[in-house]
Amino acid sequence: MPVTASSCNHVHDVQQFTAAEVKARLKAAQVQCRADGVRFTPLRQQIYALILQAKKPIGAYDLITQLQQMRAAEDVKHSEKSQQKNVAPPTIYRSLEFLLTENLIHQLTSINAYVPCCHPRAPHTAAFLICEQCQRVQECSSMPVQEIMSFAEQDVGFQVVRSVIELSGCCQDCQQAMPSSKLTVPTVLTAT
Question: pTM for the full model?
Fold first, then answer.
């Protein structure tokens, strides 16, 4: 994975997309996939749309449930007897792998869930700030993150294939909503 500096030096909430933004991102992904000669199938589009619309990180089995509910609703809408096949986990995982490969989403390994990429299709290294209280996820692709990657590759000679930098804690909103007596700061002990 080559180290590429992102043009962004601030933090993004990864799940704050309006309906218009979801539609625009889907259209941009369709155009880019067509230009790259890869198939952005209807199922891949549905999964990407669900990830974009999610208000928190979403797991593969939650995606399966939502897709099955969508299919059942379509059957009811068209007054058809439910003839849709169940959504198989391998099908979802293949679609998720496609979306990851195309840099449209990120996988949060610590919670086994997926979030949209704030800079889709632009190679970058990101760190994720994951709130344990509200499940808010923020993506940070600033220079300090790039410096870590550069150090590993250039100074140590370590070839990075995949990087996942995740920090779990409590976001500012949850800290402000929490009584100060509940906030704890880890103590660092030093030997003398």
Answer: 0.80
